[in-house]
């Protein structure tokens, strides 16, 4: 069986793989230019040897083979397709965790396709040669276990997944939509991959500061009452402090300005930022955060910035406000809590630490 172009061969080969549940990724290839260089070098070697009269008969026989240059319009001279279970696995990690999903079972099945001159001597076509046998099962279940066969290529579906993920939809909910809109057997891992691709499109190639600006811009656009501010280190271009307060948190503080809790959480997120927050609580012990800030470190200047920004944004509701903390004893406080209290006292001289709380 012959094919007149690489396009027709690829189409037929894809149908063959899907019908027989065989997966043959392209392993190696040779370009037409490289093959023509080899042919030209061989022709040059033959002409050089023909100048010697002793072995002219043998050279005349060799001259009749491999002396046809291939048209460069084909681009590729040959391609070798190796079974996906015959490609050796090379670990790229440096940790101790083992990679469980390894396909390599030393399968020897492979397919070679190359451009040859037609028997008539006019034109060229593609000839295929298959070697080796499979050392594993060829089933429908195994076929759809390959992630390449579950890949979603519909751009509209990718757009829908990106919009749903950005709006806060859960991956399992997105999985139900993607399964109903395409015939592929999409699993939860594929949805996570699509979400990750969407995040790369939104945030790819941007620095930490640029991503922070885009996220805070979206936060402020969600509601006219939302406010946010951040500080960037000019040398490293890394965000040091992020402060943000939603319109709901503003209303909460305006309704209950009498008592405000001060709390800090360390290393509770993947980026190791410190969470510094102000909160209000009622007589039932329920706590509602009315201001939050993320700091890269607990330096005094970062805490001062958080406190000053909170006072500036909520200056109209600060009269008579008491700042307390979640713990009864001051010596139980974390370093950033104490730093925040001292920073507030240094910024406003009429603030005094009384037992374990502050009074304005």
Automatic annotation (TrEMBL):
Residues 27-65 are annotated as: Disordered. Residues 46-62 have a biased composition (Basic residues). Residues 217-312 form the ZSWIM1/3 RNaseH-like domain. Pfam families: ZSWIM1-3_RNaseH-like (PF21056). It comes from the Eukaryota. InterPro entries: Zinc_finger_SWIM, ZSWIM1-3_RNaseH-like. This is ZSWIM1/3 RNaseH-like domain-containing protein.
């Amino acid at each position: 069986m012959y094919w007149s172009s690489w396009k027709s061969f690829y189409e037929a080969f894809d149908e063959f793989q899907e019908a027989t549940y065989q997966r043959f990724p392209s392993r190696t290839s040779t370009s037409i230019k490289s093959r023509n260089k080899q042919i030209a070098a061989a022709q040059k070697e033959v002409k050089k040897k023909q100048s010697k009269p002793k072995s002219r008969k043998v050279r005349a026989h060799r001259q009749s083979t491999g002396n046809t240059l291939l048209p460069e319009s084909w681009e590729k001279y040959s391609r070798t397709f190796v079974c996906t279970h015959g490609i050796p696995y090379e670990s790229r990690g440096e940790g101790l965790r083992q990679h469980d999903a390894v396909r390599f079972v030393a399968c020897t099945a492979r397919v070679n396709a190359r451009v040859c001159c037609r028997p008539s001597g006019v034109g060229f076509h593609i000839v295929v040669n298959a070697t080796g046998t499979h050392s594993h099962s060829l089933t429908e279940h195994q076929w759809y276990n390959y992630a390449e066969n579950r890949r979603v290529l519909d751009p509209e579906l990718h757009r829908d997944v990106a919009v749903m993920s950005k709006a806060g939809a859960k991956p399992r909910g997105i999985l139900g939509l993607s399964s109903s809109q395409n015939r592929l057997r999409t699993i939860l891992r594929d949805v996570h991959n699509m979400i990750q691709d969407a995040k790369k499109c939104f945030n790819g190639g941007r620095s930490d500061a640029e991503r922070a600006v885009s996220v805070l811009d979206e936060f402020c656009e969600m509601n006219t009452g939302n406010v946010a501010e951040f500080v960037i280190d000019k040398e490293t271009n890394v965000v040091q402090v992020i402060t943000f307060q939603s319109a709901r948190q503003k209303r909460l503080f305006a309704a209950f300005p009498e008592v405000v809790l001060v709390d800090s959480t360390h290393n509770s997120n993947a980026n190791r930022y410190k969470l510094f927050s102000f909160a209000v609580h009622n007589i039932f012990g329920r706590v509602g955060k009315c201001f939050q800030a993320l700091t890269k470190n607990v330096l005094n200047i970062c805490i001062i910035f958080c406190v000053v920004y909170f006072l500036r944004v909520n200056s109209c509701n600060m009269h008579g406000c008491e700042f307390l903390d979640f713990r009864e004893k001051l010596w139980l406080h974390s370093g950033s809590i104490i730093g925040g209290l001292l920073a507030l006292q240094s910024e406003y001289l009429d603030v005094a630490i009384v037992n374990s709380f502050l009074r304005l």
